[in-house]
Specification:
The chain has helices at 29-37, 54-68, 75-82, 86-91, 100-121, 129-149, 155-160, 175-178, 188-201; strands at residues 8-10, 16-18. With 203 residues, the protein is mostly helical. The chain has a single domain (8-201), classed as Orthogonal Bundle (Hypothetical protein af1432). It has a two-stranded antiparallel ribbon with strand order 1-2. The protein is globular.
């Protein structure tokens, strides 16, 4: 199959992003926040009236990592946590994990190029093995909690059907700070606003 030479998307700012050959200068922070707020986890399925955005998930992972870190995290490390799924906001697609192998090496390479552009743009440090393990533990813990509190799986199904072994969190890491109903997905505009404000604080 012939591979296209470019794949443009026009962003809300008016900038154009070539998904095949991205550069760190192709989007604004507002574009990224908007994209993540309109990209949904769990295939967009939710027991709530609205789906859960990747922007809200990213803020929850950041909050959980902060709470679990004994030594504290540096500003670049905090940015790295916040932006761990940033390429999904530029792509507009959060692929559920079991589907990824079927999309092939081309999709994996495209995602890697977007992630590299994000890392360069925001000066994100490379993951150490220890930092990656801690991040993954928080990310998986949030996935288990979202599966139950947002997507409607039971705790037994999370372990037996989805194969996620993490304990299902009862407490929403974001609820107290924002005064929201626990685990309720935010409207996209609010998710974008809160993501952008956090990104600027960590900038």
């Amino acid at each position: 199959m012939e591979v296209p030479s470019r794949a443009w998307v026009r962003l809300p700012s008016g900038r154009r992003l070539d998904l095949i050959a991205p550069t760190p200068f192709d989007w604004t922070d507002e574009d990224l926040a908007t994209g993540l707020s309109r990209t949904f986890r769990w295939g967009g399925h939710s027991v709530w009236p609205a789906p859960l955005s990747v922007a809200q998930h990213s803020l929850a992972v950041l909050a959980l990592r902060r709470a679990r870190s004994r030594a504290g995290l540096t500003q670049p490390e905090l940015r790295r946590e916040l932006l761990h799924d940033a390429e999904e906001g530029l792509l507009g697609f959060d692929c559920i994990s079991p589907l990824k192998p079927f999309l092939g090496e081309g999709f994996a390479a495209l995602s890697a190029r977007l992630s590299a552009a994000v890392a360069l743009r925001y000066a994100l440090p490379a993951w150490s093995a220890e930092a990656k393990r801690a991040h993954k533990a928080a990310d998986v813990a949030l996935a288990a909690a979202e599966a139950v509190h947002v997507a409607g799986w039971t705790a037994a199904e999370v372990r037996g059907t989805l194969g996620i072994k993490a304990t299902v969190l009862a407490q929403d890491p974001l609820a107290a700070a924002h005064g929201e109903e626990p685990w309720r997905p935010w409207p996209p505009e609010l998710a974008a606003e809160r993501f952008l404000a956090t990104l600027k604080r960590l900038g």
